[in-house]
Amino acid sequence: MQSNAIGVFSQERKIEADMASWPELVDLLGIARTMAVSIPVKDRSYHLRSYKNCFLGSDAVMFLVGTSVAPDATTAIEIGNKMISAGLFSHVCNEHMLENEDLFYRFSDLVTSNADQPLPAPAIVEPPPRRTPPNRPPPTRTPPSRPPLARPTPPSGELSSALDLLSVSRSSSQPSSQASSQPASQPSSQRSSMVAPITDDEAKQFPVVLRRCLEYLASPRALADEGIFRTSGSKNVIDALDRRFRDGEDVDLSDQLDPPVVASLFKIYLARTLQPPFSSKDAKALCEIATSDPTTRVERARAVIAAMSPLHASMTRGIFRMLRQVVESPATKMTSSGLGSMIAPSLFRNMGSVGGQPGVTFLVDNVDHIWPDPS
Questions:
Q1: CA 300 to chain CA mean position, Å
Q2: Long-range pairs for 277-284 at CB < 8 Å and ≥24 separation?
Q3: Cβ count near 73 (within 10 Å)
Q4: What is the pTM of this model?
Q5: How far apart are CA 269 and CA 244, in angstroms?
Q6: What separation, in Å, do the N-terminal and C-terminal C-alpha atoms of the chain show?
Q7: Phi-psi region for residue 52, left (φ > 0), alpha (ψ -120 to 50) or beta?
């Protein structure tokens, strides 16, 4: 048992050494574990053959881009191939590297298993040896001597006016990414405060794990954590907390020092609960509303929420009030669109990160209009 744990530890160290030239991606294992609970992983079939517990390459690329791990699909594929080389996931038939297509891939036990369980040793593709160029002195180039260009200097008054005009032009041509869904009269930093908080009587009706996660994720400690939903905590800690909640224990999370642990626990609960906050019908309706006529979509979304049971309506209000607080906190550096990509696969089941992301983003951006405080 001890040798297995040492093997996993050595494998993680190997991943970090292999990624020395990518300092922003040293925690490949953490990214892979976050991806494993964020994108749809299920049994799939192709040409009358079934493949268990697999995901689509296109979903993996969308996750890496949507969570700002990669700036574009090309870079996402490069990162994914580094993960494959490190043994974190592979094509189900070992015939492809990562492609932005509906090809099937499967996470390795290093991602999905506890460190104290037997793990197969994933194959590691060693990076090619770096060629050392011969020690040659660099050629010396003497640039031609040219007289400096004479630049006309406008009078100070004209220069000041030009700078003022440029400043106004820039501010008007670069609107906020959320400006289209935020009324000018309501600053975005105040939107969560315009939503009625969950009362004690309402919270008592929530599942214990949901109530404790919402309390923690809206706390100052969680709202000061950069990329709280984008990074992954310790899988062993997450699994231990998950088991305690499933055993019926009311776990106090206030002493948890790693906010991403609770964020991952929150997503696991949403993905697994038998009573999700949104039914499949409501999730599909809200995602369609999110991309419909902007002049009517808020009212239509409110109608969907109003048709829910009182428990589910208060659960959704509590969830999106917390998500809005995460976006409003400058320390988290989370945008509503990035948060949508991370939460959508768990919150809007069967919609995936692509189909569900617009719905989550829309609800986060308009939380004060969809769940207004009647007082």
A1: 27
A2: 277/312, 277/315, 277/316, 277/319, 277/347, 278/312, 278/316, 278/347, 278/348, 278/349, 280/349, 280/350, 282/308, 283/347, 283/348, 283/349, 283/350, 283/351, 283/356, 283/359, 284/351
A3: 14
A4: 0.53
A5: 13
A6: 59
A7: beta
What stretch of H or E contains 104?
strand 104-107
Quick one: how far is CA 164 from the chain centroid?
Answer: 38
Reference 9, options 95, 84, 92, 110; nearest CA is 110
Please give the structure tokens belonging to residue 114: 């506890």
Q: Measured in whole angstroms, how far is the alpha carbon of residue 329 from the centre of its chain?
A: 16
Degrees to nearest 5, angle at CA 271 with 279 and 193: 75
Q: Is 149 exposed, middle or buried (0-12, 13-18, 19+ CB in 10 A)?
A: exposed
What are the start-end ranges of the H helices in 274-335? Answer: 280-290, 297-306, 310-328
CA-wise closest residue to 81 among 6, 22, 129: 22
pLDDT in tens, 26-57: 467 878 888 888 888 999 988 888 999 999 99
* Beta bridge partner(s), residue 288: none
**Sign of the dihedral through C-alpha 5, 11, 14, 20:** negative
Q: What would you report as the CA-atom Rg of the chain, rounded to the nearest whole angstrom?
A: 25
Give the tokens for residue 213: 């996660």
Beta bridge mates, 372: 195
Q: Which residue has the higher pLDDT, 301 or 279?
A: 301
Rounded CA-CA distance 169/258 in Å is 43
Digit-coded pLDDT (tens) for 285-303: 998 999 899 899 999 999 9
The answer to whether residues 347 and 360 touch, using CB atoms and an 8 Å cutoff, is: yes
Per-residue exposure over 243-273, b if at least 16 CB sit within 10 Å of its own CB, e if not: eebeeeeebebeebebbbbbbbbbbbbbbee
CA 375 to chain centre: 33
